[in-house]
Amino acid sequence: MPTHQTYPHTPDGRYFVVSGRLWRTSNPGLAPEVRQELVDQLMRARRQVGVAKKAGDTEAERVARSAVDAAKRALGERGPVWWTDGAPDFNRRMVANTPYADWYAALASSAD
């Protein structure tokens, strides 16, 4: 049975941290059924990427990767930010190089 791993989320809920890198969370304003449909689309597209890679079909892989990108944009994980306060986007940045650095360092020191 697979284990579910939980990653720390920034106090504002905009990002989660994996290996010291920030990743934007999905838009919490999405209706649950809309979010689930988009997640389902994302998972289908990711599976299609794998199938295309295994088959060596570069065109199918390109189409599948485009579908992954579209789903992630619809979820709010890429593209324009979903928050409205004008704060900059730190998606994919190392947390140590962002305003979240002190928060993350405090997390790491409390885990020791």
Note the topology.
Layout: E1 15-18, E2 21-24, H1 32-55, H2 58-75, H3 101-111
Antiparallel strand pairs: 1-2
Count of the domains = 1
Low-confidence stretches: none
Average predicted confidence as pLDDT: 93
Distance between the first and last residues' Cα: 29 Å
Biggest sheet, strands in spatial order?
1-2
Strand-residue proportion: 5-15%
Percent in helix:
40-55%
- Structural class of the secondary elements? mainly alpha
The number of E-state strands comes to: 2
Overall radius of gyration: 16 Å
Describe the biggest sheet?
Answer: 2 strands, antiparallel
Please summarize what this structure is.
The protein has helices at about 30-55, 60-75, 100-110, and strands at about 15-20, 20-25. The protein is mostly helical and about 110 residues long.
Write a concise keyword list for the protein shown above.
single chain, 112 residues, two-stranded antiparallel sheet
Question: Can you describe this structure?
Answer:
- With 112 residues, the protein is mostly helical.
- The protein has three helices and two strands, in the order ββααα.
- The protein has one domain (15-111).
- 47% of the residues lie in helices and 7% in strands.
- The protein has a two-stranded antiparallel ribbon.
- Helix 1 (32-55) runs antiparallel to helix 2 (58-75).
- It is globular.
- The protein starts with 14 loop residues before the first strand and ends with a helix.
